[in-house]
Design a protein that fits this description.
By secondary structure, the protein is of the alpha/beta class. It is 56% helix and 12% strand. A 5-stranded parallel sheet has the order 2-1-3-4-5, with helices on both faces. Helix 2 packs parallel to helix 8 and helix 3 packs parallel to helix 8. The longest helix is centred in the N-terminal third of the chain and has 46 residues.
Amino acid sequence: MSTRVEGALGALYPFLDARPADVDAVLAAVATSTAEKAAEIVALRRSLVAEHGQRLVDCARRCAAAFTAGGTLYAFGNGGSSTDAQDVAQLFLHPPTAARPLPAISLTHDVALITALANDVGFDVVFARQVAAFGRAGDIAVGLSTSGGSANVLRGLAEAAQRGMVTIGIAGYEGGRLAESDVVDHLFVVPSVSVHRVQEAQTTLYHVLWELTQQALAGEL
């Protein structure tokens, strides 16, 4: 009976086990698995063009209008989506090219504020309270949730919608509670059950959104 390798390595390569094995065969299997994963993410990213192309254009035009009127983008999420939220804010505020910098803030960067709200009030409000404090009508809220069901992301977007902000949701699977909500103006769902594939494709989505927003601001969209 084989003993499966557990943990992150076992999740990525379920064909591995703890018994001595033919090294060449294992390396070949790993190479095949890696190639299959690469092909999967390429196909998934390409499918997003047909699925979200026009919606991304519409969203970019609305974001450009918000920035032109003096709006600020606020991004937020949990775990891996927290790092994506920071990447979104960094991308808009400090673009990698000579593109126009745009006001953007990640609501996950202030550890003291996050832990104070979580400890004193509750983790469900760590984003909503910040949106209430900083957000204004015409600003932009970007909520990221791989499952689409993060309660604090939903509450943050609900607070943003109540304040007249443009609300953008980025999710995986089938969209979860974000897809069921009426507080999200622009929803982009990556149709995959793999957290890895979802987050990789989400990165593509918000980079495309940034590029299209830059084009809209330049009058080229």
